[in-house]
Amino acid sequence: MDFDYSGAEPLFRQVADQLRAGIASGEFPEGGPVPSTTEISRTYAINPATVLKGMNLLVGEGLLEKRRGLGMFVVPGARDALRERERERFVGEGIAAFVAEARRLGIGRDELTVLIEGGYSDGIEGH
């Protein structure tokens, strides 16, 4: 986890973002625990109430569940839910920005299609 203590983004949101990223990457597997509030607060010098506020955001999003006396655990299906949200965000925002930039640069639909297909065949997609 990496936090920007002097940035504009509140620390509780950064905690939530870091945990989301860990769930999405599989670092925190479904059904498994996430680091405790105490562990995160001590390791990263963040107020425990701030850490808990970030975790509670994910509880509210249905990604984490509290187990009394045991801690916070990743809900089954959380990784797929995060992936679906990111896909929707990408389609809604990323594609529109991508196409707008291509148009600004004078790249037409056919050329853009060839470039995208080339990116996939060259392994750019990262998989």
Please explain how this structure is put together.
The protein has helices at residues 11-25, 37-44, 48-60, 78-104, 109-121, and strands at residues 64-67, 71-74. It is mostly helical and 127 residues long. The chain is elongated, with a radius of gyration of 19 Å. Strand 1 (64-67) and strand 2 form a beta hairpin. It has 2 domains: 11-76, Arc Repressor Mutant, subunit A; 79-121. Strands 1-2 form a two-stranded antiparallel sheet. Helix 2 (37-44) crosses helix 3 (48-60). The model has no long low-confidence stretch (mean pLDDT 91).
Q: Keyphrases for this structure?
A:
5 helices; elongated; 6% strand; 60% helix; mainly alpha; Arc Repressor Mutant, subunit A; 2 domains
Concise account of the structure shown:
By secondary structure, this protein is mainly alpha-helical. It contains five helices and two strands, in the order H-H-H-E-E-H-H. The chain has two domains: 11-76, Arc Repressor Mutant, subunit A, CATH 1.10.10; 79-121.
| Extended strand count | 2
Order of helices and strands: HHHEEHH
| Strand order across the largest sheet | 1-2
The number of helical segments is 5
Q: Please state the CA-atom Rg, rounded to the nearest Å.
A: 19 Å
What's the CATH first level of the largest domain?
Answer: Mainly Alpha
| Helicity level | 55-70%
| Mean pLDDT reading | 91
How far from one another are the termini?
A: 23 Å
Per CATH, which architecture of the largest domain? Orthogonal Bundle
CATH topology of the largest domain: Arc Repressor Mutant, subunit A
Largest sheet: 2 strands, antiparallel
Shape estimate: elongated
**Can you identify the CATH superfamily of the largest domain?**
Winged helix-like DNA-binding domain superfamily/Winged helix DNA-binding domain
Number of domains: 2
Q: pLDDT under 50 segments (min length 5)?
A: none
